[in-house]
Amino acid sequence: MHERLSFHIKRDSALHRLNPLTKIFLVLALILVAFLNPWYWTPHLLVLIAITPLSLLARVGAEYFRAAARLILPAVGFLFLMQAFFQPVGEEILFQFYFLDVTRESLMFAFSNAMRIFVMVSAFTLFLLTTHPSELMSDLTRRGLPGQFSYVIISTLQILPQIQARAQTTIAAQRSRGLETEGHFIKRAGSLIPLVGPLVLGSLVEVEERAIAIEARGFTSKSLKTSLHDIPDSSIDKALRWALAVIAILSITLKLWLS
Amino acid sequence: MLEKIKNNFNTQTWVLIPIAIAINIAMGQIVLVLRLPVYLDSIGTVLVAALCGPWAGALTGALSNIIWGLAIDPNALPWWPVAFFIGYMAGRMAQWGFFKSWWKVVVTGFVVALTAAIVSTPIAVYLYGGITASGSSFITAYLLQTGQGIWEAVFSTNFLVEPVDKITTAMIAFAIVLGLPKRTIGGYPKPQQVEAEGGAGRTQMYIAVGVVVLLVLFAAFMLRNILGG
């Protein structure tokens, strides 16, 4: 069994038990509110009163904070710095760095923007921590998503680590044959083909075999397929989905009304 | 319409898409090791677009960015429409016969770059206020400081960076197609789109590489003018 790229942590909690579609509604509602609500502190408040408590409720608090610190904060922090320095808005200059000046406005703008992106990514992280990919895909397939889409998502998650490992192997193998991966720019650019060629051609050879294998298992068959696992969809799920949809629609109308 | 979308997809397409997405992402690693100033993160997308058609290419592009965003770098997520149109445009160009010889592939790369520049501009402006987490925002910031409008600044930056990346991407994808056995290509929906014609020889390849080098020099020259003047 190959390692699969997945964040999912198997625990028993209220959030884990929710239907995957409900959780997608939750994530989308959080993102819409964070991006559309006109109040400055909305995204900050969402992190405090929605996302953090939800991660504790789902009993994945430790994993969530680890992912936030390792994955989300560096990316968002970098974005914050770029915007604080480069955004040419505002008059009140706090300090200067060559031709770049940091103003009160650019700092405020960068902070709220970084927080919005933080809400978006951490909401998705929470979703991935509490939902198994195959559970999500079989639920969506049951609701009418073509099975081919599920295949693409699930097998990408399986193949990605394999191809990344293959890329490392190709780099190491070509280096041991004396391929220069350091030095002058032209030399490095010239090394591109000996690295890309084996990686891509090697991966493409498998396509035909895989196609025959899944074809033999009825991949394109039109008949209704049954599922081994039953994914619960309670009345609480349905009520929650309605509530979240109303919140999302409200924030869109508020935005349209104010602008 | 629906029929036209459907004929992009056969079983081999569905199997190729995940592999193409993984190739897109793994290219990031190789470019990082070689420290090259390009992304080359749409080779798989262009490959699917050429072999299977515009809609398959678009789907590959969009899913690549979404999966990349969720699993590796969150900043990639909002850019999925750009990847969608890269795949779509590459597929259209292939359909119009622009994936058969080196110079035509250079044209394809340029058109794809223009598309990417146009689609990414509103995302950069509305979502990020013009300044994104990418290194090229340094140029945008400078253009903004010199008093250019935000739309012009973002678009000129994109237009400066994209062509080199996308032309190289299209050329590598074409080299891969040339290296694939005919039997394999025959299994995809659009094998006639990538049938190499006269201009697929060595000489033409060197000329195409020359064009890219000239473009790199031109971009560097423009950059120096902008940053120095």
Report what the structure shows.
The complex is a heterodimer of chains A (259) and B (229). Chain A contains ten helices and two strands. With 259 residues, chain A is mainly alpha-helical. Chain A has two domains: 14-139 and 233-258, no CATH class; 146-216, no CATH class. Chain A has a two-stranded antiparallel ribbon with strand order 1-2. Chain B has 229 residues and is mostly helical. Chain B has one domain: Arp2/3 complex 21 kDa subunit ARPC3 (Orthogonal Bundle). In chain B, helix 5 (80-95) runs antiparallel to helix 6 and helix 7 packs antiparallel against helix 8. The chains are: A mainly alpha (259), B mainly alpha (229). The interface between A and B is large, with 64 and 53 residues.
Biggest sheet statistics of chain A: 2 strands, antiparallel
Strand content of chain B is under 5%
What is the correct CATH architecture of chain B?
A: Orthogonal Bundle
Q: What is the name of the CATH topology of chain B? A: Arp2/3 complex 21 kDa subunit ARPC3
Please name the defining characteristics of this protein:
heterodimer, A: 259 residues, mainly alpha, 2 domains, two-stranded antiparallel sheet, B: 229 residues, Arp2/3 complex 21 kDa subunit ARPC3, 10 helices, 75% helix
